[in-house]
Specification:
ten-stranded mixed sheet; globular; binds inosinic acid; three-stranded antiparallel sheet; 12 helices; alpha/beta; 19% strand
């Protein structure tokens, strides 16, 4: 498929990095279209572990073009730290391109993000406190500073001065913080500019030309469907559009260019931060899932809340993303359970059972899971390499998901390593 979008179908942390890393082998361009360093991908290559936040997961494949689209928000300090680390570890970063239209995360965004959460108290969203929401808010208010502003010292100075004339009042009066020194910030940002400017490019044109040459483009969604600003569990969402449609606006491509949408789902479910979670597991299963699955945040180290696969959410993800295939990750984590609950419907207040994701937040907040109990396989599957090699109960589990969601499973993850992925059906194909 010349242009494939990979999207998280749950609340993030589905193991998209590993799926993208695998598919990147056959892609020419790997493009992130939204989010910033709130994302976190753990990639295991041989004995080495890489934790990436901003740079697309394809970077570990030499020679691939790795791009950050206009829909992303870029913390220049984080981008440079990531470039430095990759280079120190022998990874070539010369093929990284950043859209000039992407917005910069500035120091006041990080302060406002963290302090707004504190002020919300018990009502907080549980953000990563990386300044993501405030940066997108400034973008929507048309007062943001963009990556392309780094190219022109005069414009950059002016923009920082204008922004600080408002932000420093906010910082002082609302957040009771010290104002940010204009000169210190400007000099630091100019130093970042020297490092970032060689990577700035017209990403829409780059992707368009790659497709015209018959190359393969893999669009990498960060976060996930239920964290989407418009389609997720608002307000417990991120501030961008991780859904597949976000790839069009976030890279500057038309919807007719998208050939396939691969949804990545964990074989169970996790959530970071606050908000309702109908299929959250009871103890001791919650802790077992967390320990077996290593469910701690890549970015923040926070414990992830753990529960059972929610097919109501997955059907919804299939709908809003137009999924053509599924990748089910971490199936091995379920190997020790005698029976595995799967949430097939929600019981709403009043007793009605629905297979559909509630459009009204109160219904979602009060939804109770209706479980089907599937037999477990209780065998180690971490070295299985073919569909036929899986225990019958594991194959039945996957078939149940396919039937319930109406989307075929193409990939199945059985462990952390790159080679622990069963190919059930062909996915990304060279054009
Ligand atoms: P923000 O994106 O930092 O504003 O956080 C908003 C919400 O999205 C919070 O509930 C975060 O925990 C969640 N979130 C953001 N990025 C990720 C991610 O990569 N994985 C899982 N949750 C995330």
């Amino acid at each position: 498929m010349p242009l494939t979008v990979t999207v998280g179908t749950q609340w993030g942390d589905e193991g998209k990095g590993k799926v993208v890393d695998m598919l990147a082998e056959r892609a020419d361009v790997i493009a992130r279209y939204q989010g910033g360093n709130n994302a976190g991908h753990t990639l295991v290559l041989g004995d080495e572990t890489f934790k990436l936040r901003l740079v697309p997961s394809g970077i570990l494949h030499p020679g691939k073009m790795c791009v950050l689209g206009n829909g992303c928000v870029i913390d220049p300090e984080v981008l440079i730290a990531e470039l430095d680390e990759l280079e120190q570890r022998g990874v070539d970063t010369s093929n990284i391109r950043v859209s000039g239209n992407a917005h910069l995360i500035m120091p006041w965004h990080r302060i406002i993000d963290a302090d707004s959460e504190l002020m919300l108290g018990r009502l907080q969203i549980g953000t990563t406190r990386r300044g993501i929401g405030p940066a997108y808010a400034d973008k929507a208010s048309r007062v943001g500073i963009r990556v392309q502003d780094l190219l022109d010292e005069k414009i950059l100075r002016q923009k920082i001065q204008t922004a600080l004339s408002v932000k420093n009042v906010l910082l002082r009066k609302i957040y009771h913080q010290r104002p940010i020194d204009k000169d210190v910030l400007t000099e630091a940002t100019l130093r970042y500019a020297t490092r970032i400017c060689p990577h700035i490019a017209d990403i829409s044109l780059l992707v368009h030309e790659a497709l015209e040459r018959g190359e393969t483009v893999l669009c990498e969604g960060a976060q996930a469907t239920l964290l989407d600003l418009d389609h997720g569990t608002y307000p417990f969402v991120t501030s961008s559009n991780p859904v597949a449609g976000g790839a069009c606006t976030g890279l500057g491509i038309g919807p007719t260019r998208v050939d396939a949408v691969l949804g990545v789902a964990k074989a169970y479910l996790t959530r970071v931060g606050e908000g309702p979670f109908p299929s959250e597991a009871e103890e001791p299963h919650r802790t077992t899932l967390r320990d077996q699955g290593g469910e701690y945040g890549t970015v923040t180290g926070r414990e992830r809340r753990c529960g059972w696969l929610d097919l109501v959410g997955l059907r919804y993800a299939a709908r809003v993303n137009g999924l053509t295939q599924l990748a089910i990750t971490k199936l091995d984590v379920l190997s020790n359970f005698e029976t595995i609950p799967v949430c097939a419907g929600y019981e709403l207040p009043g007793g009605k059972v629905t297979p559909h994701f509630p459009s009204h937040q109160s219904d979602f907040h009060h939804a109770r899971p209706v479980y089907e109990y599937l037999p477990g396989w209780q065998t180690d599957i971490s070295s299985v390499t073919t569909a036929a090699g899986l225990p019958a109960a594991a194959r039945d589990y996957l078939r149940f998901v396919e039937e319930q969601v109406g989307v075929p499973v193409a990939l199945v993850g059985t462990g952390q390593r790159r080679d622990q992925m069963i190919v059930m059906r062909e996915t990304l194909r060279a054009a």
